[in-house]
Batch of 2 targets.
Target 1
Amino acid sequence: MTYSMVELIGQKRDGGTLSADQLAWIIAEYTGHRIADYQMSAFLMAILFNGFDTTELAAWTNAMLHSGEVLDLSAVAKPKVDKHSTGGVGDKVSIPLAPIVAACGVAVPMISGRSLAHTGGTLDKLESIPGFTTDIAPWAFPEQLNDIGVVMAGQTETLVPADRHLYALRDATGTVPSLPLIASSIMSKKVAEDIDALLLDVKVGSGAFMKNRQDAAMLAQTMVEIGRSSDTPVTVVLTDMSQPLGREVGNANEIIESISVLRGEGPEDVTELTLTFASEMITLAGIADSETARGLAEQAVSSGAALDVLARLIERQGGDPRVIENTAQLPSARNEYVITAPRDGWITRCDALDIGFASVRLGAGRSRKKDVIDPSVGFSIEAKVGDSVSVGDPLARIAWNDQSALDSALSVLGNAWRIADEPTPKPDLIMGVIT
Amino acid sequence: MTYSMVELIGQKRDGGTLSADQLAWIIAEYTGHRIADYQMSAFLMAILFNGFDTTELAAWTNAMLHSGEVLDLSAVAKPKVDKHSTGGVGDKVSIPLAPIVAACGVAVPMISGRSLAHTGGTLDKLESIPGFTTDIAPWAFPEQLNDIGVVMAGQTETLVPADRHLYALRDATGTVPSLPLIASSIMSKKVAEDIDALLLDVKVGSGAFMKNRQDAAMLAQTMVEIGRSSDTPVTVVLTDMSQPLGREVGNANEIIESISVLRGEGPEDVTELTLTFASEMITLAGIADSETARGLAEQAVSSGAALDVLARLIERQGGDPRVIENTAQLPSARNEYVITAPRDGWITRCDALDIGFASVRLGAGRSRKKDVIDPSVGFSIEAKVGDSVSVGDPLARIAWNDQSALDSALSVLGNAWRIADEPTPKPDLIMGVIT
């Protein structure tokens, strides 16, 4: 069938429902450059206002999925489960998590993204390991998954090209914050990994794209629905992103913190989230029930099996695994700047968004796509919400190389911390689980 | 000031209000091709959903107005009033109307449009007079207005270029049916004519862009508001477009019907609308109060003064004024096809939209911009709502040249007329006046 794009825009604008055939036509024509960007952006804005019903959302996601190649992991016998996070500050969980669940018999074909706006990117963090490449061809996935149980790769040109085109257009046309567009973008890429199930970490709070619990729960619900329609069970965990996760925000320093989690020496919050997610993924994989899964994950850490998987992963993807024993091989910054507490009291705010933007200015993230990341700079946060401090105590240590970048970072940190006379409880790390 | 278009799109998307400075920036940058079509179309769709408040609408219209040249009619001492119609089928009112009010001392600098979708265009009708040109340069307006009192011209490249660009984009992106965009498009072009006041005919019904009275009244209200903010009083008359206006639908045949109105021999509905509008325009011009204005208009017809203005207009714009006495000079079709009543009864439907689309297929209008119009083809409607017919009576006579065009026209006329056992009253021609 062939359609008139202007008529289809009109239908969505007027609150109509489009057929699977119509939506597939739009994605195919747009990917083939036969629909103009100016028509697609008007259509995306109409979706932003009028949404998609469940059937449309499934059809749209499916059409995106089939806009390019799809991984074929039929040669991998192990259950295949991936985890995706909607993005946060200091969120390095994927790095210790994937080796833990791989050590427990789950195959993790993880395709990650890069630093975006104020949030970090798993690929950027991994690439701070000298020699580590995330450029893994689709055909190389099955063998590596059979050997090690984990691949940590960047997006390829051939998987879900529609999403790359659409995302660039959405970014320029104010059509990013649409629930069905966000959900279909994530799910099409994850289903293209040929996985059996997905764990989704929807972050909530100042440093997340979802600022409140209600929006996050709606996204979670939408994701679970798409998962159902594409035969890919999705478990969603809503987690706090009002303050950075863990102590380290940057790239090389987040690798060091990830290693410490796998040694059983990580900060409490990152460790807890990692083990909770591992437990959910092992359960989704059907390897254990939810009571015993947590024990398996903890054992993978205490036995050193998970750390061993990480070493093999680094080696397989071109890095030197001795970096685990000798983190001095990682890039480090030349200078340190310490932010100190101006008064005694309790920390009531340690803002993820402020620290995220400051870390971008420092050079740890990108404000434009072409920016080059400095893997050695970043924050070590010493005081988080609920902690008590005395005047002069360090709130954070900033590893820096460039004076103007440091000055720029400091200029946006004026309200990052707040110190009050009364204590505030620590925020709940895990805000809910939706399946 | 310089802004980020993606941020401004976001503001409008989120229901915010944009400043006059921001809106002027958008229009200037878009007209200068420094904002991409894909950003503008997303912005237009956001306007379609979230609207403009009164201040934004005034600022947007004003920015469009100043995107190009503006007529300077300061050398014309007479009051300057124009009339605009939102478009209909068989709507030739401008052609007898302008000469009538010009004969009464009003200057009418009318810039009209062409046939669009199922509606006819004043320019196309006028151009069926051999030699008649509507290509009148802005500098030629004052002298012609001082001499004859009327100019009937096409849009120029230099007046309101923003509207031409925006309209083409809206047409391709489903963003035509937005009240503020429709209103600002009309008003920017009319205010650019340097007029003192405007009479607006908002058509309502199947053959109009506004299908119901409520939408039409909202457009009317919006237009009156913009008029107020741009110091150009606007009177809006809501008129019926459920069936074609008058008997003739086409081009040359509508010129003949227009001449008959100026001879006092026109169909009742076209005559009534023409005189009502003339009376409103004479009142808006301050030449007479509303009680005596109608008399002046009738006198301009009965004295032959209005017909004389039409003759001078035709001559001034390159045509042969003897066409008025000898309409055989106008192009005429080679064949006639008569649609007859299949049964006795009363006409309860004579649908403007069906007949409008049929006339396009016949060659009297355009389905694409590049289509060439055949000025000689068209409909003479013999039976309209409220009329009684006997089986075999003509419902309409079709003047045609091309067999396949005739067949195509006939194929969409199946439901154009409906004949019932009981009579239906004629629809009210004038549905309301809003000032």
Target 2
Amino acid sequence: VTVAPRPITFLSDYGVADEFVGVCHGVMARIAPGAQIIDIAHGLPRHDVRAGALMLRKALPYMPPGVHLAVVDPTVGGERRAIALRTAEEDRILVGPDNGLLALAAQRFGGTIDAVDVSRSHHRLDPVSATFHGRDIFAPVAAALAAGAELLDAGDPIDADEITLLHMPMAMAEPEGLVVHAVGFDRFGNITLDVEHQELTETGLRLGRPVLVGDHRAHYAVTFSDVPPGRLMLYEDAYRTLALAVNRGSAQDLLGVALDDELTIRPA
Amino acid sequence: VTVAPRPITFLSDYGVADEFVGVCHGVMARIAPGAQIIDIAHGLPRHDVRAGALMLRKALPYMPPGVHLAVVDPTVGGERRAIALRTAEEDRILVGPDNGLLALAAQRFGGTIDAVDVSRSHHRLDPVSATFHGRDIFAPVAAALAAGAELLDAGDPIDADEITLLHMPMAMAEPEGLVVHAVGFDRFGNITLDVEHQELTETGLRLGRPVLVGDHRAHYAVTFSDVPPGRLMLYEDAYRTLALAVNRGSAQDLLGVALDDELTIRPA
Amino acid sequence: VTVAPRPITFLSDYGVADEFVGVCHGVMARIAPGAQIIDIAHGLPRHDVRAGALMLRKALPYMPPGVHLAVVDPTVGGERRAIALRTAEEDRILVGPDNGLLALAAQRFGGTIDAVDVSRSHHRLDPVSATFHGRDIFAPVAAALAAGAELLDAGDPIDADEITLLHMPMAMAEPEGLVVHAVGFDRFGNITLDVEHQELTETGLRLGRPVLVGDHRAHYAVTFSDVPPGRLMLYEDAYRTLALAVNRGSAQDLLGVALDDELTIRPA
């Protein structure tokens, strides 16, 4: 009895100018013919593990459960492990380097229940190059798992709590206000914060009301058209996370914040 | 009896750096497993509805008939409707914002015979975000229709002539010559005009002959190699539309024209 | 009896901003419904036939055998032939312009055993434009072949040795050292050479040992972390070809070499 292969999703920082993504597709098509491969994105800032982890966490709930390949791998060829893991919810399999890239997405689906080190998996290509583990380890392991191979047979079992975590700042309700952090920026200068609307109940911050972001007056709005051009706004982004934007401008420039910088938000 | 899903084509201005396109693919793969999704392009200038409408019109005849999703949506979250429509010819279903984006392509296939407002379609994701209707409304509606859902059940019926049109300039044969307009530019500075070769019969313009474009001498040529480098040429582009180019140069720079500018062409 | 279509791979210099790639996908989906299409890459430097030929040669071994479409076509509309060929090994079919683009990949699979000129193939679209043969000739011919059409019926037979070759410099072991050439550069300034590790046996160059590249001291290393930042290294790249790099720098800038420039490498 043959079973249709599971869908594979693929996220990386390889860019689309070179053949890296295409070659990984080819490798997977050879091992799991007929498997659907969905590219989440390949334009992540090079080597930005955290941006990759955040993107994977927010994109995965919209992807069909299957095998989720992610490659942002600044220390390829070094000591970091290559891993595959199974999440507690929805039986999703995540494959990638053990550098924190998979941690937030695994958490989002109830955590890891099984994990293996696939650095020496028998599903690898032979030989394995020093620099292109996406092609030689991660893609073939992902494809083999999509085609029905057993996770626990794909590598050496490791403890779920040995998996590398991603250290992220953490929003806190303090007496002087809600202390949040700039955890991401998009190309428009919008700032992603580390808090969701539903966590605001105790903070006195209310949709439709003025707020203070540090010393800057802002409006807690629904859409850009709720505030005049040039005006700072706090809003819930499309992934239910709070964010800061300037209508037709750049919140990042206005506030002059860098990654992980702290911001205090309170009712105005 | 299950029927194979129809192919889906997808055009947007989302770019490929972020996860927007990938997330829409994921949403469609969940709703219409096995549906083929063909990306027409996602590199349209941001918010350029007309460039999107022109690209959709010229690309669609080369696409298998199916469901054609297009998202260029500068007023997302505002009042514009979300629509799905069926064309008179080839039973193509077009899905997108009702801002003119679908108008030229619908016209190209004989016009609209059925249309629905899908803003509150039961195929939507729940919740619907304020800013990412591609993911929350358009992609799920397109996928449901590809998987066999009925168009008239996907939203509230609207009159075909209530659909927003796209206002375009219109080429006219005048006594002083053929008055055309610059309706698009590509990255090489080639200028797309709003007239086709077959409309030239009464104008005295003949392939292989010299013409005047305003005060500039040009040649009505077949390929770039028909004119010397630096020389202006009028030609039929790969979609049978007339265009202006400078061999190894930029017609846009030479003529100094902007979008919709009028140009008069006559035999030299 | 219907047979599943063969996979198609697609390489071009069309870029992804415009609709060119998407339109070729649409054309192929109409002719070979259900065929898997794998994009190798579309970001090649415009009109760079040799970069395309090198990329095709290195990517193809990782692709499932099938029909391999490649379009880098600076003289489209001119005299060059359009061809389809079958390789001696693995029954791969290559389709593209006869300008050397297919030559290295064909060689890699044992050379050409059958070839046809498809410029006037009955599989072409009608009409054929002057400038977009990817859409009008190459994609439809590739799709027809993937769907099961006979190669020898797809065009006019031509002799395998009439196919245009690609002239490349050739590495030579000379008394003063190994004379190699800079045959490609990537965006990090790494330089691809025209020699593989396995060809070094007689040269005295040994992995782990210091070497001289012209007058520059370098190290024959395995990975970037083997040399300090700013230091030149010789290494085997992910496709088993020798290359030069500077850890966190640009070998191209350091050595000031241009395409095809000669370099002499010898033990230090």
